[in-house]
Amino acid sequence: MQQFSTWRVALVMGIGVTILLALPACAGAEEGDGRITPDRGAGRFTPCPASPNCVSTQAPADDAQHYMEPIPMGDDAATAKTRILTIINRMPRTTVTQNDADYLRVEFRSRVFRFVDDVEFYFDEAAARIDFRSASRLGYSDMGVNRKRMAEITELYTTGN
Question: Which CATH class is domain 2-159?
């Protein structure tokens, strides 16, 4: 009986220590850090961190982990933004948090744990392209969720769906 109690205490303590060690990895700022900032110049996103939970059209093209092709605009910026908003509004658990003339910021929440991914769009009419950045607020890996989401949005935009 004594061995069972000692084993149970050790198990509970082990779980507690594991949780305490894991908490810093889950901690993060409530607001994402990817806003276009004036000191970076117009239309520049914050670079992706080294972790694999971010994709951006502004990452170096040789950075296969983070880089994705921009979306060809095909329309004027206002029409392109309306089309992107239509696509986003059909997706579950989305909130548009900023909507400027050439910039859009959206929060996507995961279904189960309600983790937030910050997605930004910059509508570059002069270059006829839509730049984007999609990054998880918490954790290290996103299991490819940001890349899949942005590939889906790109596909829906380019096919007109």
Answer: alpha beta
Contacts with 81 (C-beta within 8 Å, 6 or more apart), sequence order: 99, 102, 104, 121, 123
Q: Which residue has the tokens 């270059």?
A: 127
Give the side-chain half-sphere CA count within 13 A for 109: 11
Q: Rounded to whole angstroms, how far apart are CA atoms 74 and 30?
A: 35
- Interval 58-99: pLDDT, tens: 999 999 999 999 999 999 999 999 999 999 999 999 999 999
Q: Where are the domains of the chain?
A: 2-159
- Interhelix angle 77-89/145-159, nearest 10 degrees: 120
Cβ proximity of 66 and 136 under 8 Å: no
